[in-house]
Specification:
about 240 residues, alpha+beta, Structural Genomics Hypothetical 15.5 Kd Protein In mrcA-pckA Intergenic Region, Chain A, Alpha-Beta Plaits, 3 domains, 4-stranded antiparallel β-sheet, 17 strands, Pseudouridine synthase
Amino acid sequence: MANERLQKVMAEAGVASRRKSETLITTGHVKVNGQTIKILGTKVDDDDEIEVDGIPLQREKLVYLLFYKPRGVISSVKDEKNRKTVMSYFPDVRQRIYPVGRLDYDTSGILLMTNDGALANKLTHPKYKFEKTYVAKVEGIPTNDQLEKLRHGVRIDKKLTAPAKTRVMSSDLDKKTAIVEITIHEGRNHQVKKMFEKIDHPVIKLKREKYGFLTLDGLQSGEWRSLKLNEITRLTQR
């Protein structure tokens, strides 16, 4: 992009986080058009040549993809156990994309894929409180009192969860199961499953239906689409 701050361009290119990129600049590791730059806020254009420790910066076109992750797929670029990862669904995407946050192996649903490091950091940072809505099939039928505990926060891994929005969508008295919608803005490990375990209603099946204002409308499991310009703008201007 034209006329962008140097540290932002470095972060988007995957050099390091925005803060680490700032440190690299102020400590003299970065050159622009052959000159060492130590001033934060320096702006660069698309045709400027940037080097970090003598290595030219490879700038890619930014891409933003909305993916319907199936169950049984790892939300990672690589997997040490050689299990199927989300990357297998993007063989023709030339950019070095990666998932924003994670969905568990056995959880399906909406997942953003991008090479915009600055946006990825922003969307996963707790202070921005970016809402994610899940639909869970759980054992038993939660009472309103139990759901009220989730609405106020429960203690998992020795830390209280932020208040959640939750409601029972349907219940099956014969099978003794319920479908519950829950909206959270945190992204702790196995958080939704642990929250339901805390109220004695273990999750049988879990799907992330919404990511902020984004939904899975028009997509089948395993499919993806590029974000529209207005969607990218809404995400980046939060």
